[in-house]
TrEMBL record:
The keyword Cell membrane does not apply. Keywords: Signal. It comes from the Eukaryota. It comes from Pan troglodytes (Chimpanzee). InterPro entries: LCCL, LCCL_sf. Residues 1-24 form the signal peptide. This is COCH isoform 4. The keyword Transcription regulation does not apply. Residues 28-80 form the LCCL domain.
């Protein structure tokens, strides 16, 4: 992901402009729990928002790079 720094004249502030999410066409991410599995989301592609503070020792993750649908989505993201 590339970002561009644009100086705001006279304000001493820089803005970081990031491109929109790829493939989501502006859709809002789906808020999920720490233990939501791939099977629990009925879409082929989805942007998700994992909560902070998930207990790492309780994730069920099966796979490496490609993960089984029974894996925790947030756990697979942390593992990757």
């Amino acid at each position: 992901m590339s970002a561009a720094w644009i100086p705001a004249l006279g304000l001493g502030v820089c803005l970081l402009l990031l491109p929109g999410p790829a493939g989501s066409e502006g859709a809002a991410p789906i808020a999920i729990t720490c233990f939501t599995r791939g099977l629990d989301i009925r879409k082929e592609k989805a942007d998700v928002l994992c909560p902070g503070g998930c207990p790492l020792e309780e994730f069920s993750v099966y796979g490496n790079i490609v993960y089984a649908s029974v894996s925790s989505i947030c756990g697979a993201a942390v593992h990757r």
